[in-house]
């Protein structure tokens, strides 16, 4: 087996793409680089284990993957750097290629999303921008029309004919709509409505790591996302200036087995997680949700009229919620079915938020309330804050700033103070897991290292690490101690 893998990798090829084709346009070197349109016509040439190097610059044609890698030999789509020996030694190399890759097709001349899946191709593929926002997929305001399956476009769009796509990773990529200001159209930044002509085929095994996802009416719109992980990403600027659109940060239906961890989410307009219908297991832990963009925003809501009584289980652990005006858990005014009784909400900080448990009837305990929030729920270990902020800093813009991308893993805003006591979050949490994933905080510090778990997204530490330590994983096996 080792011999076969080595033999396969020894034949891996490199292909080269520039904003305009060069030389003989066969993709074999920078001097003979493909354009994006030529790459789309020649995906069959790219074999498992190959690398497609994308030079920095602006591309006005969308990328439409048309081949598959394998589990043993995924296809890599990479932005080159000056320290890479392979692309820098290829004839025609220029240091100018080490720049942001901007894929921004013009809606008037090329009415497609920047990264568009319209078949069951592009599986076992990794897109890596190498640095924060290294590859940017941008949908401009001309995408206010509908796509092939009757829905809005996305910066990443699983369009008509897609379905069953799987095992695709995105690292250090930026996905962007035009933002809420002046936006009257409906843009889903990540669009997983995989209509294939007969049904929603779904998409599974996706990984978004260190990405920046912003702009548009929804950051994620999903019908059938499963067994996927979104980690160390930043989400912001989700909304619309048009009353015709109801903006939800995450619009979810029939999606299960997903992990949402260590993310920085801020400036969304209405719902955070909006459950349109029944969805299964979600692990939501180690995140900071803060500073909504208007007084109507909330963290989670069940859609009115949907069969939502069996949503979950949702495991909502060790998150920090700050300045969220309305309820954290809502059920469309309390008029629809309740959240699943198997849900769990533990070790979370709720500071300067609206009501928390409007329609949440499940396990809730070891949560911390303050900044105007009285203790809610029935958990006997819930904690009332002292009145003083429990954070080292609590600001609208965490260190690194809005738009820094990569989830800014070195964020220091909302780290907790060192104070020990019955009215502070340090050492008052419940130990939930020892599996190497749940027991890390947003910056990779080990929970309980000083004896007990802390409440909130951050474990108290005198010297937080700069980079998260958990390894990416698309499927979580979560066990309680």
List the helices and strands and how they pair.
Elements: H1 2-10, E1 14-17, H2 36-41, E2 51-54, E3 57-59, E4 75-78, H3 85-89, E5 101-103, E6 115-117, E7 125-128, E8 135-138, E9 156-158, E10 165-171, E11 173-176, E12 188-193, E13 203-209, E14 212-214, E15 218-223, E16 225-226, E17 229-231, E18 234-236, E19 248-253, E20 258-261, E21 264-266, E22 271-275, E23 282-285, E24 288-290, E25 300-302, E26 314-317, E27 320-322, E28 329-330, E29 344-346, E30 349-351, E31 363-365, E32 368-370, E33 383-384
Parallel strand pairs: 1-2, 2-4, 3-5, 4-7, 5-8, 6-9, 7-10, 8-11, 9-12, 10-13, 11-14, 12-15, 13-16, 13-17, 14-18, 15-19, 17-20, 18-21, 19-22, 20-23, 21-24, 22-25, 23-26, 24-27, 25-28, 26-29, 27-30, 29-31, 30-32, 32-33
Q: Would you give an account of this structure?
A:
The protein is mainly β and 481 residues long. The protein is 4% helix and 26% strand. The chain has a domain of 243 residues: Pectate Lyase C-like. Strands 1, 2, 4, 7, 10, 13, 16, 17, 20, 23, 26, 29 and 31 form a 13-stranded parallel sheet that branches. Strands 3-5-8-11-14-18-21-24-27-30-32-33 form a twelve-stranded parallel sheet, with no helix packed on it. Helix 2 links the parallel strand 1 and strand 2. The longest helix has 9 residues. The N terminus and C terminus are likely disordered.
């Amino acid at each position: 087996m080792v011999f076969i893998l080595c033999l396969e990798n020894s034949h891996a090829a490199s292909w080269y793409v520039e904003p305009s084709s060069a030389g003989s346009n066969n993709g074999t070197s920078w001097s003979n680089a493909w354009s994006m349109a030529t790459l789309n016509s020649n995906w069959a040439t790219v074999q498992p284990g190959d690398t497609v190097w994308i030079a920095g610059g602006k591309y006005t044609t969308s990328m439409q993957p048309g081949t598959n890698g394998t589990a043993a030999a995924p296809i890599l789509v990479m932005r080159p750097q000056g320290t890479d020996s392979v692309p820098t030694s290829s004839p025609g190399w220029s240091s100018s290629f080490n720049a942001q890759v901007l894929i921004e097709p013009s809606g008037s001349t090329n009415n497609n999303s920047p990264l568009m899946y319209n078949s069951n191709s592009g599986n076992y593929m990794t897109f890596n921008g190498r640095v924060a926002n290294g590859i940017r997929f941008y949908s401009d305001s001309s995408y206010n029309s509908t796509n092939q399956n009757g829905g809005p476009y996305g910066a990443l769009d699983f369009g008509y004919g897609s379905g069953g796509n799987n095992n695709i990773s995105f690292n250090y990529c930026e996905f962007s709509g035009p933002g809420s200001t002046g936006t009257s159209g409906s843009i889903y930044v990540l669009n997983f409505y995989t209509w294939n002509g007969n049904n929603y085929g779904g998409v599974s095994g996706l990984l978004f790591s260190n990405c920046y996802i912003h702009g548009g009416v929804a950051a994620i719109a999903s019908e059938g996302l499963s067994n996927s992980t979104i980690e160390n990403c930043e989400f912001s600027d989700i909304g619309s200036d048009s009353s015709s659109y109801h903006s939800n940060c995450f619009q979810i239906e029939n999606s299960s087995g997903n992990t949402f961890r260590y993310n920085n989410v801020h400036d969304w307009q209405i719902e955070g997680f909006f459950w349109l219908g029944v969805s299964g297991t979600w692990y939501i832990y180690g995140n900071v949700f803060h500073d909504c963009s208007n007084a109507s925003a909330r963290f989670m809501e069940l859609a009115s009229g949907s069969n939502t009584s069996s949503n979950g289980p949702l495991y909502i652990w060790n998150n920090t919620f700050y300045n969220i005006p309305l309820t954290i858990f809502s059920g469309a005014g309390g008029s629809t079915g309740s959240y699943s009784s198997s849900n769990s909400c533990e070790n979370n900080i709720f500071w300067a938020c609206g009501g928390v448990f409007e329609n949440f009837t499940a396990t809730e305990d070891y949560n911390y309330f303050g900044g105007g929030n009285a203790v809610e729920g029935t958990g006997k270990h819930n904690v009332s804050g002292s009145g003083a902020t429990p954070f080292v800093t609590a600001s609208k813009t965490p260190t690194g700033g809005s738009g820094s991308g990569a989830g800014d893993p070195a964020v220091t805003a909302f780290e907790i103070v060192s104070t020990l006591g019955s009215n502070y979050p340090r050492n008052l949490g419940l130990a939930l897991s020892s599996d190497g994933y749940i027991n890390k905080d947003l910056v990779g510090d080990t929970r309980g290292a000083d004896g007990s778990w802390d409440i909130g997204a951050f474990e108290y530490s005198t010297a937080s690490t700069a980079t998260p330590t958990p390894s990416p994983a698309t499927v979580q096996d979560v066990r309680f101690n």
